[in-house]
Amino acid sequence: MRNICMKKLRKLSKNKIVLVVFLLLSTAGIGQGNLTGNIESTFQYLNDDPVINAFQPPSKGLINSYMNVFYTHSGFKAGMRVESYLPRIQGYPNRFDGTGIGFRYVGYVNQKVDVTLGHFYEQFGSGLSLRTYEDRALGYDNALDGIRLIVKPTKGIQIKGVYGNQRLSFTNGRVVNSDGIVRAIDAELSLNEAIASIKDFPLEMSFGGSFVSKFQLDDDDNLVLPENVGAYGGRVKLGYKKLRLDGEYILKEQDPSIDNGKVYNYGHACVLNFGYSTKGLGLTLSAKSVDNMSFRSDRNKELQDVFINYLPALNKTHTYNLVATLYPYATQPLGEVAYQFDLIYTIKKGSKVGGKYGTTLGLNASTTYRPEHYLNGGNVNDANRVYYRSKAFDRSDSLYWRDINVNVTRKVNKKLLLLLSYYNITINNDVAKISNDATGIISSHIAVAEASYKINAKHNIRIEAQGLFVNKKSDGTINDKGNWATTLIEYTVSPHYFISFLNQYNYGNPDEEKRVNYPNVSAGYIHESTRFMVSYGRQRAGLFCVGGVCRFVPANNGLTISFTQSF
Question: Which of 28, 167, 382, 489 is the residue whose CA sits 20 to 30 A from 36?
Answer without folding.
Answer: 167
